[in-house]
Model the fold of this input.
Amino acid sequence: MIPQFAREDFKVVIYYVGKLIIGLGILMLFPLVVGLINKEINPSLDFVISSLICLSIGNFITYKFPHNPDITWRQGMSIVAFSWIISMFLGAIPLFLSGHYYSYLDACFETMSAFATTGLVVVNDLDHMAYSYNFWRHFMCFIGGQGIILVGLTFLVKGGSGIKIYIGEGREEKILPNVVQTARFIWTVSITYLFIGTAILFSIFIFHQISPARALFHAICVFMAGWDTAGFAVQSQNILYYHSPAIEITTGIIFLLGAVNFGVHYAVWTGRFKELFRNFELKLFFSSIIILFSIVCLGFLKNFPFNNYLSFFRQTFYQLISAHTGVGYTNTTPFYFLNYWSSLALIGIILAMGLGGNSCSTAGGIKVLRIGIFLKGIAKEVRKLLSPESAIIVEKYHHIKDITLEDNQIKNATTIIILYILVYFIGAIVGIFCGYPFIYSLFESVSAAANVGLSVGITNSSMPALLKITYILEMWLGRLEFISIFVAFGFLFSLRSPE
Amino acid sequence: MNNKVINFLGKPEIKKLIRYFKNFLNGVVGIFIELLFPLFIFFISSIVCFLFFILIYIKK
Done:
């Protein structure tokens, strides 16, 4: 029998959620600084109000509920799930106050899209948005991509309990023995690439004759949304706005690196360069890019809407890697998707979105490693059937270290794969119910649940509220990879009164 | 002279400094090698795309 949650569990969960709310309030000071630098008085006030709300709620909660240093697994999982949903409600306050959203639901949708690094947008008149609001949108992508909990682990949570909330955020691998060290290493990689990527993007924007201040703002925002595979852009036309192959190549490199496992980054950065060529997940990722790209190319055999080879390669390949890494940057328009992309090409993109990037990276989706484990599991079963009954079949793969495939791993991978597919189709059914064709509904649903952000045009501020809520739930489930959310629901249903 | 150099390099703080420098160098080389990975994907995919482009051109 599963033990019920008690009031004590509730206090611990609330205490840590309160701490993370304080963290969110502090993070809101960054866009406030951007607003003050750009002399945006009203937006700055919005951030002061939002930050004060967060700090007041957070401090009230941590004061009211006593501190308990030890966290159990189920408490940790519940903390993660509740932190994400509460961060959505609080992070949406400045966006709602900006006046760029028709309703608070729209602001919540955009906030969850940013935190979950999805990149689906419902904002109105993005091209005239104040710098501070726009910075907040991209900064949320960076916080969410790194992990709200990871941010908390680095600065707010001390002690050995961190692992129980770290795992809940969809990262199963500990790169270093200590979870706080792991969190700091992830930050080191991200901040290093933040400087390199921003410098390169800044140079390209300057070359394209954008003013230095604007170039720096665009470079930082594009990097944050690209590295954390979110796909938000400063302008409404996304990457298409720049019409620049150099930007497309640079962002492509950024998000391909963002979709690489942080464990691989660690191995390469500490001198184990061969890991790049030996890693099972990376090899599979590379193979799936080539196979899915071939499917997309095959989709244009009958109808070829491109002028030449370069535009064919630029559009199809950029869309594919954008989908596969879960970033959602696009150098085409939804109109082009709807009218010129064949169903086969769209299916190639849907499959790429559904599979996702590497585990323990900033990418979403099922994750290539799980597919690899699943396929290895099938191979193991077939080999078992072909061998004598007494034979012991051992299947191995190299992922940071040599790993022997266990039945438990296959079971876990299969469970998550099935859950993702279920969510993809449930979202598609809701889309059909709201009156959209199946292929487009599936496209948008997979894009939301796999935290990609590519759109065929369904997602906009005028879509039905039911669909907005469905996509919010899909983004939340997809980002946290189900388990912590299921535990949190169990927590809600089994809260009992003290006896 | 050699002994002086060995003694100097053997100091714990110098050893620590050398270790930091070695780690830094590994990181820099690692970043360069990592950057080759996306470029390799770009290169192979451009070849695949070119083959399909020729196929489409022939079919036309």
Observations:
- Chain A is about 65% helix and 0% strand.
- The interface with chain B takes residues 192, 196, 249, 252-253, 256-257, 260, 265, 268-271, 273, 276, 282, 286, 289-290, 293-294, 297-298, 300-301, 304, 309, 312-313, 316-317, 321 of chain A (CB under 8 Å).
